[in-house]
Write a structure and sequence with these properties.
With 663 residues, this protein is α+β, with helices and mostly antiparallel strands. It has a domain of 257 residues: Rossmann fold (3-Layer(aba) Sandwich). 14% of the residues lie in helices and 35% in strands. It has 10 helices and 39 strands. An 8-stranded mixed β-sheet has the order 32-33-35-34-36-37-38-39, with helices on both faces. Strands 26, 27, 28, 29 and 30 form a 5-stranded antiparallel β-sheet that branches. Strand 14 and strand 15 form a beta hairpin. It is globular, with a radius of gyration of 24 Å.
Length: 663
């Protein structure tokens, strides 16, 4: 990584894909200890950003990403005064140690107090603390023997949260799974809405529903949220939109998707309490959100798609202070913040901001104060590291400069091409110092419903490859977000086939755009991208080296092995037991004798999304057939590596593999 002049704006990418991509971000460890360069400067990440309602303060959870990873092992809670720029780091009761992690900062309506969660290191137990504005020592509000997330204050000052009693693992399918042992039919712990009352939780949602997302109604009488019964990791794909009363018994279904190809996310209640907006579309992962924007009257009526036929994907929602729907869109290579009237089909869209950057926080990418309209946002690009900026939308100014001077010695081009009648987009990243024809590694994102968007990787795999003279190509083939619902759903019952044609056509476009050596092409992918890597080497000999991270080699066996099989029904149309031919048609293992490409594969031992057995099956087949291969299963890891020594090892092996066959 090279230093650059000035500061820059930047932001956080969607966490479900980054968990896997970040897992291999590390520096190449090829030099001996005596020749090793000084440690590279780490990238400071902002995991949460919350503006106070009065627009005077910004609270953030942040920390330095380790070399080779994304999630900071040491995290801080910081409050910044917008009037002075002064930053106050809050002293945490468990000290500065790994897993002493603050999270979910939430301001009281009067902006006088900030509450946050705190994990107890080495456990799945969380507590809730509160801090008076201007103070540095927090006060304990709740000790809880389970997980807590998503704190929200109601208009009357009551604090709500999502809590899980006696959890067997951390919340989320990407986390390391619990041991597969005992009675597998035992009910799983449910995540429920609770209101803090005198040091205890008053449960609002029932014990047989797992609540994924929720929001207070402005009158304080209840909540709106997405939920499904049963295993929370597996059942999000069938979640419905519910209304929950604080004291009135059973929840009421507000919206049930019309078919299995619609998932729902981001429910947001209007400031007047009359409507709820949400995103609905084909989505392959919780927290990887994209689709059309719908609005629904809270007291009954039909849901209206206000963006039908939109050639973009809504990725986050909120409401403006004046009561218009605000959305963040991904439209090709542009991120946009837009507003439109609620309750109108095909409503006119007003663009507030657009740029080739990634924005992140929860309400249309920003955290807002009303009525001032001041916002706070963390944003980033491929070459500009994350910083927090504040101001009205599109008129932000730097609040932080913690990553000033960091940069990457590369040029980035947005490429567009046609494939089977579709408009396809991708990113080509070229090293500044390249001479002559250079090797290129194609990086295929996970999902498949996700997208490669501008993201500052920091010291790690991508930076190491650029430094070593590789070009990187990051396509967004059919099935990705960014081109509308027709494009996102274009790989249904066709996984690997059309999307691989898009990738190969994109490589042809890259070859015309830059001095790429066609004889030295590699491919890397994680999760669904790992499947695409395994699939690609069974379908073409264009790639001379491949690395598959947490891939899928056999859809038929995968169906019975993974912990999230509900995601497959929208894509295959039926279970593997009802239509095995659909699964066999896209299974790399059925074409394994076609492989000639040397392939390295790695995976986490406790990955429930893409189990280690899938990687082992692919490696075993290649080894039996005499194809150069290697495997690494990382102990204790889930879907995306967390331990710094594991991420460093993965990058060392990955860089060495590409160097061996492409340099």
């Amino acid at each position: 990584m090279r230093a650059r002049k000035g500061t820059s704006a930047a932001l956080l990418r969607d966490l479900v894909e980054r968990a896997v991509v970040g897992a291999v971000l590390a520096t190449a460890l090829s030099a001996s200890a005596s020749e090793a360069p000084p440690p590279e400067r780490l990238v400071h990440r902002f995991l949460a950003v919350e503006m106070s309602p009065d627009g005077a303060f910004v609270a953030s959870v942040e920390g330095d990403s380790p070399v080779g990873g994304f999630y900071p092992p040491m995290r801080e809670l910081v409050i910044r005064d917008l009037s002075t720029g002064a930053a106050t780091q809050i002293a945490l009761p468990c000290g500065k140690v790994p897993q002493c992690w603050p999270g979910s900062p939430a301001w009281t309506p009067d902006s006088r107090h900030l509450s946050f969660t705190l994990r107890s290191p080495g456990t799945h137990a969380y507590a809730v603390y509160s801090l008076e504005t201007g103070a540095t020592a927090p006060t304990l509000l709740l000790n809880f023997g389970g997980t807590i997330k998503d704190l929200h204050y109601g208009s009357d000052g009551r604090l709500a949260m999502l809590a899980t009693e006696n959890p067997r693992k951390e919340v989320g399918a990407t986390e390391a799974g619990a041991p597969v042992a005992g009675d597998l039919d035992e009910p799983t712990p449910e995540q429920r809405i609770g209101i803090l009352e005198r040091g205890f939780l008053h449960w609002v949602s029932p014990p047989d529903l797992y609540v994924y997302e929720y929001e207070w109604r402005p009158d304080g009488k209840g909540f709106v949220g997405t939920a499904a019964p049963g295993d929370g990791d597996n059942n999000w794909w069938t979640a419905k939109l519910y209304a929950f009363g604080v004291n009135d018994g059973a929840p009421r279904v507000l919206y049930s998707p019309k078919d299995i190809h619609l998932q729902i996310a981001n429910p947001r209640v209007s400031p007047d309490g009359h409507a709820v907006a949400f995103i609905a579309g084909l989505m392959s992962d919780f927290n990887s959100t994209g689709g059309d924007v719908y609005t629904l009257p809270l007291e009954g009526g039909q849901a209206i798609n206000v963006t039908p036929g939109m050639h973009a994907s809504a990725t986050s929602l909120g409401w403006s202070c004046s009561g218009t729907v605000r959305a963040q869109l991904l439209a090709g290579d542009q991120t946009k913040i837009v507003e439109f009237d609620a309750g109108r089909e095909a409503a006119a869209v007003h663009v507030l901001w657009s740029g080739a950057e990634t924005l992140r926080w929860h309400d249309a990418g920003v955290s807002s104060a009303c009525p001032s309209g001041v916002t706070a946002v963390a944003h980033e690009s491929f070459t500009a590291p994350p910083e927090i900026e504040t101001g009205t939308i599109g008129h932000w100014r730097d609040l932080t400069a913690v990553n000033a001077g960091l940069g990457v010695p590369m040029r980035v081009q947005s490429l567009s091409w046609k494939s089977d009648g579709f408009d396809v987009q991708g990113w080509l990243m070229l090293p500044d110092h390249a001479e002559g024809k250079i090797p290129m590694v194609t990086v295929i994102h996970g999902g498949p419903a996700a997208a490669a968007v501008p993201f500052f990787s920091g010291p790690g795999l991508f930076d190491a490859l650029i430094d070593r003279g590789y070009a990187l190509f990051r396509p967004n083939p059919r099935g990705s977000f960014g081109q509308g619902e027709r494009f996102t759903s274009a790989n249904v019952r066709d996984l690997g086939h059309g999307d691989l044609r898009d990738v190969l056509a994109g490589i042809d476009t890259a070859l015309k755009a830059a001095p790429i050596d066609e004889a030295r092409l590699g491919v890397w992918g994680g999760s669904y991208g790992g499947f695409m890597t395994m699939w690609a080497v069974t379908q073409t000999d264009r790639f001379k080296a491949a690395v598959a991270a947490a891939g899928i080699s056999n859809w038929l066996s995968y169906y019975g092995e993974n912990g999230i099989d509900a995601w497959m029904l929208p894509y295959f149309g039926a279970s593997v037991y009802e239509d095995p031919a659909a699964y066999a048609r896209s299974s790399p293992i059925n074409f394994i004798r076609n492989v000639h490409t040397p392939t390295f594969a790695w995976v986490g031992e406790r990955d429930i999304e893409c189990p280690a057995s899938q990687t082992q099956e692919f490696w075993h087949a290649l080894k039996t057939l005499g194809i150069p291969t290697a495997i690494m299963i990382y102990p204790g890891e889930g879907h995306g590596l967390r331990e710094p020594q594991h991420t460093a090892d993965a990058v060392r092996r990955t860089v060495a593999w590409f160097d061996r066959y492409l340099r």
